[in-house]
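Is this the right way to post C-alpha cells for a design question? Let me know if I should format differently. Anyway, here goes:
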C-alpha cells in the first residue's frame, strides 16, 4: 500500500512494486517548501479531480496514477472506503503535480499524517481547512 511521509526536507509518496507498475510511475518526491496546504478527505472519491491520464482506474475500488485537469496534473494512490491525505503543491514547485492524494487505512492515521506534514513544512496556508477548488477556464481571479 502507498505511504506518504517526510524524509529530511522532502515529502515522499512511496509505492510498492505493484503500485509502481500500475501507476507506470515511480515514487514521488517533493520538497517541503512546495507544500501549500494539507487536508484529510474522509470521502475518498472527493480527492479525485479531472480525468484519468496514466495508471489504473478500477471504479469504486482502486485509483492509482496521474489525472489531468485544467489546472495541471494530480498524482493519486487511492483505495475506496479509506480517508485520503491530500497535499496541495505550489505551482512553482519542481514537481509536475498540483495535488498528491494518498489513502491511509484509518481516519486517526490520516489525521496524524497530515499533522506531521504540516508541522514540518515551512510555509503552510492555514487560512482554510479545505482544499481549494480548481480554477474555471475563462474566469478572472479579480
Amino acid at each position: 500500500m502507498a505511504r506518504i511521509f517526510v524524509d529530511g526536507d522532502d515529502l515522499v509518496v512511496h509505492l510498492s512494486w505493484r503500485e509502481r507498475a500500475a501507476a507506470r510511475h515511480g515514487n514521488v518526491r517533493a520538497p517541503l517548501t512546495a507544500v501549500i496546504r494539507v487536508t484529510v478527505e474522509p470521502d475518498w472519491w472527493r480527492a479525485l479531480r479531472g480525468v484519468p491520464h496514466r495508471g489504473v482506474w478500477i471504479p469504486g475500488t482502486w485509483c492509482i496514477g496521474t489525472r489531468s485537469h485544467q489546472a495541471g496534473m494530480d498524482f493519486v494512490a487511492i483505495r475506496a472506503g479509506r480517508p485520503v491525505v491530500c497535499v496541495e503543491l505550489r505551482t512553482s514547485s519542481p514537481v509536475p503535480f498540483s495535488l498528491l492524494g494518498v489513502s491511509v487505512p484509518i481516519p486517526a492515521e490520516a489525521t496524524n499524517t497530515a499533522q506531521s506534514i504540516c508541522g514540518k513544512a515551512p510555509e503552510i496556508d492555514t487560512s482554510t481547512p479545505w482544499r481549494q477548488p480548481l480554477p474555471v477556464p475563462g474566469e478572472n481571479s479579480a
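Format looks fine. Someone answered above. Worth noting: The chain has a mean pLDDT of 87. The chain has one domain: 3-120.
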